[in-house]
Every structure is written in C-alpha cells, then in structure tokens.
C-alpha cells in the first residue's frame, strides 16, 4: 500500500473508532439570593464563645433541601451572624461553594471534603438506596473532619427546616453525655434490628443494651460534644458495629442502627419539638403524615417523601406547604421573552 493511502486509511479508522460516552454531569440547581440577616442589638460580637456551629451535608440530590434548611436557621436566629456552618461534600466542592456563596453572600461557612474511602467496605445495602450513600455516614466522622477548636456541633439533616431560634437547641445541657437528641421511648426498639441480631448466640449483641433503657432517637438532629466524642473514640465504636453488620446482617436502616447500638440509653433527651420527624412518610411509600402532638420548633421530612419533589410533581402533602416558603430554588420561567 502506498504511504499516502496508508496514512489516509489509518486516519479514517481513528475517526470511526467509537469511544465510550462519558456520563453527563447535571448542572447544580440555581437559587435566588437570600436577604442579608444581621445580628440584633442584644447579640455579642462573634467570638469563640458565641459562635454556634452547625454541620450539614451538601450534594446535588439534596442541595435544594440543604439550602432551605440554612435559610430557615438564619431567618429565625436572633444572632444569625454568630452561626457558622460546616458543610461536608464528597465531590463538586468548587461548584457547591460557589452556589452557597452566591445564595448566602454573608454566610459564615466552611466546606470540607468527605473521603468516601473512609466508609469503603463498611456500608451494607438497606431498605432505601438513599440510605446507602457514603455521605449519609459523614455524621460519624465529624470529630475527625472538623478542627479541634470546634468543641460542640449541631448536626442537621438536609430535609428539615427550623421555625425557632437555633440558640435554644445549642444551649442544651448535655450534662455527662456525649450526645443529645429527642428520644422516643414508646417506639418498638426491636424493629430497628433483624431477628439475626436478637437470636445470635454472640453475647456481644445483647450486651450492647445491658443495664440500659434504650430509646429510639433520630440522628437527623443531634447536639454533640466533640471533645467527649474524640476522647471516647466513638467513631471507632460506630465503625466496629458497621463491620459486624457486614458479617452478620443485623440491621437494615443505614447509618441509624450503629448510633442506637452505641448511644441508645445514654442520650441526653431534648424536647420533641426539636425534631418533628417522619414527615416524609416511611422508607418505602413516603405517604403523607401529620405532626406529632405538641409544640414545633423543627420540621423534619425524614422518610422517602421529600417536600420539593412532591411540590414539583403537583401532589404535595398538606405539611409540605410549611416547607415551601424557605425554598429559594430558581424555577424556570413559564414564558420565554422570545
């Protein structure tokens, strides 16, 4: 074959090679800029003693919920400039940082990388795929990811809003406990573990609750003493149960059961008003639910149903309307100028 023809043939073959298509990355949602929230006259200047530290996760799927949650915290805080947010993300951190900064230009926040290798090989499949995502386990590693100067943290899930001043939750007296959260002692505790847990001859399993009065608590709202957490090496204790789960399959509800195994019966109780949870229904159907009896300081759409999805689909639950005023999502215009 003449050299020129050979070159043309090679070029043609290269042009006709089919390379695997790269998966398109969807753009992050866009949001309206929130108003500037300023401290009241009674607020002290932000300092180490007056800062309220709040941790949340950020990802593309739940970003709309996280933004609404931040907005609600700021709107109801007497001293919003004294609130510092600590966001954890696995990827797209530069984009997420720009989105948060553009939506809340005056927000005091830091963004941390959560390395998914920390939970590699430790996560087991659960009743809902969203519970299996590595970022769902980031709350276990707050003590390692946040600076040592952060000695106490409030952890919030990305599907909740506050309708009260966050300082009231921040001022919770943990007494001798590592963790504070609303407890629900009427819940059927056996539901959160498989029969294999309760029937296993390994004495370590029932010993987890020996001498305790364990109660269910939802890990989407927690006040944590990070100094005590670090000193007690609680991350290792949680990881230990995650490894047991991989071997014995003792639960099916994501990151919640390890917290129950380590902390249930040793939690500082908080008023139920600080976690009106379950508004997203169960983990299978996500049906509408009512509020629990009593006052409300925080509404939490834990469960399958999320308010932004139900609102967009035109089939909202009655309580989803309480979330809507905090939604800063920039919807596409109905009509084009052209």
At a glance:
By secondary structure, this protein is of the alpha/beta class. It has helices at residues 3-16, 63-76, 93-103, 142-145, 166-170, 195-199, 204-207, 226-232, 234-248, 256-263, 307-313, 320-323; strands at residues 52-57, 83-89, 108-113, 152-156, 160-162, 179-181, 183-184, 216-217, 221-225, 268-269, 298-300. The protein is built from 12 helices and 11 strands.
Tell me about the biggest sheet? 7 strands, mixed
Q: What fraction of the residues are assigned to beta strands by DSSP? A: 5-15%
Give the CA-based shape.
Answer: globular
Tally the helices.
Answer: 12
Family: Belongs to the glycosyltransferase 8 family.
Subcellular location: Endomembrane system
Membrane topology: Single-pass type II membrane protein
Enzyme class: transferase
Description of the molecule:
- Keywords: Glycoprotein, Glycosyltransferase, Membrane, Signal, Signal-anchor, Transferase, Transmembrane, Transmembrane helix.
- It is found in: Endomembrane system.
- Residues 1-24 form the signal peptide.
- Its main location: membrane.
- Helix 2 links the parallel strand 1 (52-57) and strand 2 (83-89).
- This protein has twelve helices and eleven strands.
- It has a seven-stranded mixed sheet. A two-stranded antiparallel ribbon has the order 5-11. A two-stranded antiparallel ribbon has the order 7-8.
- The N and C termini lie far apart (57 Å).
- Residues 10-21 have low confidence and may be disordered.
- It is an alpha/beta fold.
């Amino acid at each position: 074959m003449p050299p020129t023809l050979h070159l043309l043939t090679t070029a043609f073959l290269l042009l006709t090679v089919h390379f695997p298509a790269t998966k398109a990355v969807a753009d992050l949602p866009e949001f309206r800029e929130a108003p500037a929230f300023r401290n009241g006259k009674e607020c002290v200047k932000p300092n180490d003693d007056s800062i309220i530290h709040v941790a949340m996760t950020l990802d593309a799927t739940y970003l709309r919920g996280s933004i609404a949650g931040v907005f609600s915290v700021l709107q109801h805080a007497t001293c919003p400039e004294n609130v510092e947010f600590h966001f954890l993300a696995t990827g797209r951190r530069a984009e997420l940082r720009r989105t948060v900064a553009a939506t809340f230009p005056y927000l005091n926040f830091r963004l941390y990388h959560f390395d998914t290798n920390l939970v590699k090989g430790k996560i087991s499949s659960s009743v809902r795929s969203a519970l299996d995502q590595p970022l769902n386990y980031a709350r276990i590693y707050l003590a390692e990811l946040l600076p040592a100067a952060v000695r106490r943290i409030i952890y919030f899930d990305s599907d909740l809003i506050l309708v009260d001043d966050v300082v009231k939750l921040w001022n919770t007296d943990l007494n001798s406990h590592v963790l504070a959260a609303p407890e629900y002692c009427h819940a059927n505790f056996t539901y959160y573990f498989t029969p294999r847990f309760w029937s296993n001859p390994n004495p370590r399993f029932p010993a987890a609750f020996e001498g305790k009065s364990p109660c269910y608590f939802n890990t989407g709202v927690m006040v944590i003493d990070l100094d005590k957490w670090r000193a007690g090496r609680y991350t290792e204790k949680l990881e230990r149960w995650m490894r047991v789960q991989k071997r014995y399959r003792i639960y099916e509800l994501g990151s919640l059961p390890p917290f129950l195994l380590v902390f249930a019966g040793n939690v500082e109780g908080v008023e139920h008003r600080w976690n009106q949870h379950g508004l997203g229904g169960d983990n299978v159907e996500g049906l509408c639910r009512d509020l629990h009896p009593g006052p409300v300081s925080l509404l939490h759409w834990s469960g399958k149903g999320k308010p932004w999805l139900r609102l967009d689909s035109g089939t909202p639950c009655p309580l989803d309307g309480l979330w809507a005023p905090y939604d800063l999502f920039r919807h596409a215009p109905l009509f084009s100028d052209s």
